[in-house]
Amino acid sequence: MSDKTFRLDVVAPDAALYSGEATFVSAQTTVGQIGILANHEPMLGELAPGGAVVLTEAGGARKALAVQGGFLSVSATTVTVLAESAQFSTDIDVAAERAALESATEGSEAFLTAKSRIRAVEAVS
After folding, report:
1. CA-to-CA dists, residue 41 to 31, 38, 52, 99, 123, angstroms
2. Which domains occur in the chain, in start order?
3. I need a surface site. Which of 6, 52, 60, 92 has the fewest CB within 10 A?
4. Residue 3: what pLDDT?
5. Helix H segments across 4-108?
6. What pTM was estimated for this model as a whole?
7. pLDDT in tens, 4-38
8. How far is it, in rounded angstroms, from Cα 51 to Cα 85?
């Protein structure tokens, strides 16, 4: 993995969740999984409902966020995640989310939210 860094900002309508230097970002988009390293080609991608964003900080720490839709914007030096809603994996009760997943109708908003939260926790476990 590269040790070159880029600026990463993760924001949702209700909060700025992360702002700092990262060496890698992985996200689920509507067309598949994407990995971003420093100097990535500029692009704009739509984040998938029920997805997760995983980041590796400059110091090597990994963090994950459950993300419910939005966009991923990549420029020459910055990656911005504009999420409809997002939550850090450390704030998620996995047992409650597994129960919610079991009781929700597949494809429903509740199902996708629970799936996203479980993915985020599993990504850094």
Report:
1. 17, 9, 21, 40, 25
2. 1-125 (2.60.15.10)
3. 60
4. 80
5. 94-103
6. 0.91
7. 999 999 999 999 999 999 999 999 999 999 999 99
8. 11
